[in-house]
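Please fill in the sequence for the structure shown.

STRUCTURE ENCODING:
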């Protein structure tokens, strides 16, 4: 049996037979923008009050919002047509109109330090700073009760969730990547509220005292090991250089004397009260050669 559906405004739901086996149904859909009698009377009374108290009523009827602000107006609980007002001058009716100002400037707030357990079971305290602004004032007023408090709570929760998926080494070295990931998650969550998260920065990562001591001891041991390796490499290079210098001095004995005098000059430049002057025994061979029998060398101790 064919059925024809027809929607009429405003009507009640019902069906009737048109004959020939056809049934026509209709459904009433209420008009959400329809204004009742009470609302019309209240609006008329408000206009009448403005006229009676003119021109003093102008002080309450005309409002001003700044360049960085927008106003969302409600009339008897209903959102007025035309969206947000501002910047500049706009008109409101006393007793029936209410409005809320929304600041479009960038706002920053500190996320309280969060005790986070990283993926490698290390407890750290992390705090951050979040920068956001209102891009859709209408959604910020209508879709969320308090966009500022909601954004702050969501930022603290997101910070804990993001850091819980990272190791301690990643948390200390990849702060920029963590900030970008947190910003993306916050921006997606706050988009229905008309809030745009512009930037997230990790301020500080505080480790337990015992862990700081352990990491400091590990870093100190690593530095000492590197210092010993560097010193050993320096000794190797110095020994090679001394070997090459000794080969040069063997071919030219005068170079040895010049090096000897240079060492004496270096010692005397330090203004030391005691100078050790090694006297080579080879210089005495010239004087001892004609001075009688040669002195036999002392036997070496066994």
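FILLED IN BY: designer on duty
SEQUENCE:
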């Amino acid at each position: 049996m064919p059925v024809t559906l027809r929607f009429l405004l405003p009507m009640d739901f019902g069906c009737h037979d048109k004959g020939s086996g056809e049934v026509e149904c209709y459904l009433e859909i209420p008009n959400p923008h329809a204004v009742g009698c009470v609302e019309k009377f209240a609006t008329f009374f408000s206009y009448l009050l403005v006229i009676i108290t003119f021109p003093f009523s102008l002080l309450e009827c005309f409002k001003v919002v700044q360049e960085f602000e927008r106003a969302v107006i409600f009339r008897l609980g209903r959102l007025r047509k035309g969206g947000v007002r501002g910047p500049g001058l706009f008109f409101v009716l006393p007793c029936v109109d209410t409005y809320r100002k929304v600041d479009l400037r960038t706002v920053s707030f500190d996320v309280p330090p969060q005790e986070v357990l990283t993926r490698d079971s290390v407890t750290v305290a992390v705090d951050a700073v979040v920068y956001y602004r209102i891009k859709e004032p209408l959604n910020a007023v209508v879709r969320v009760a308090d966009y500022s408090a909601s954004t702050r709570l969501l930022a603290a929760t997101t910070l804990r969730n993001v850091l819980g998926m990272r190791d301690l080494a990643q948390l200390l070295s990849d702060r920029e990547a963590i900030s970008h990931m947190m910003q993306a998650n916050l921006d997606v969550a706050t988009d229905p509220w008309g809030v745009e998260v512009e930037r997230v920065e990790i301020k500080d990562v505080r480790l337990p005292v015992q862990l700081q001591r352990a990491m400091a001891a590990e870093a100190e041991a690593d530095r000492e090991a590197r210092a010993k390796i560097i010193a050993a490499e320096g000794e190797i290079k110095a020994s090679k250089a001394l070997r090459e210098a000794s080969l040069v001095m063997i071919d030219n004995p005068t170079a040895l004397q010049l090096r000897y005098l240079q060492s004496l000059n270096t010692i005397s430049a330090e203004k030391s009260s005691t100078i050790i002057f090694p006297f080579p025994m080879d210089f005495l061979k010239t004087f001892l050669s004609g001075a009688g029998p040669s002195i036999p060398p002392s036997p070496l101790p066994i």
